[in-house]
């Protein structure tokens, strides 16, 4: 009976589900599919329970599409979605810039998002200069 319970617990996850293993970070990098600086994604749980991806592998982010099952199998982790219980007028805001300390929720205000945008801009400018500098150096 416990096996069945564990199977469904891994499948659906819950707010109480224990997470073991590191939550992967590459999907939050600039090249990652889920990365965006457009601000958090509102998730409306006012009419039904919602399952928010915490493994970052979902192709239907921010919703769990069960990609965590193969991720867990390949990485020895136990990461499942976070269940947002249905409640009248309940809307939660899910992070997609990857910098929130309260992931999967957005933990930032507008200024914080702008700081992230500034940071990305500086990194891109620096990278561009580094590439052109290296090319110029090669030609000497
Ligand atoms: S928790 Fe990420 S796909 Fe399920």
TrEMBL record:
Cofactor: [2Fe-2S] cluster
Gene Ontology CC terms, in alphabetical order: cytoplasm
Key words, A-Z: 2Fe-2S, Iron, Iron-sulfur, Membrane, Metal-binding, Transmembrane, Transmembrane helix
InterPro entries to which the protein is assigned, alphabetical: CISD (IPR052950), FeS-contain_CDGSH-typ (IPR018967), MitoNEET_CISD (IPR042216)
Domain Iron-binding zinc finger CDGSH type: 38-74, 79-115
Pfam families tied to this protein: zf-CDGSH
Single GO molecular function: 2 iron, 2 sulfur cluster binding
TM stretches of this protein: 116-137
Stated name of the protein: Iron-binding zinc finger CDGSH type domain-containing protein
Organism expressing this protein natively: Heterostelium pallidum (strain ATCC 26659 / Pp 5 / PN500)
């Amino acid at each position: 009976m416990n096996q069945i319970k564990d199977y469904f617990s891994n499948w659906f996850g819950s707010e109480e589900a224990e997470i073991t293993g590191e939550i992967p970070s590459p999907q939050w990098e600039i090249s990652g599919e889920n990365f965006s600086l457009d601000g958090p994604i509102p998730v409306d749980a006012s009419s039904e329970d919602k399952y928010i991806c915490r493994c970052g592998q979902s192709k239907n982010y921010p919703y769990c599409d069960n990609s965590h099952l193969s991720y867990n199998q390949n990485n020895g982790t136990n990461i499942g979605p976070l269940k947002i219980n249905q409640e009248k007028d309940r809307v939660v805001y899910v992070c997609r810039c990857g910098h929130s300390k309260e992931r999967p929720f957005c933990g930032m205000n507008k200024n914080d998002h702008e700081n992230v945008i500034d940071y990305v801009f500086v990194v891109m400018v620096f990278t561009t200069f580094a590439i052109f500098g290296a090319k110029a150096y090669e030609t000497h």
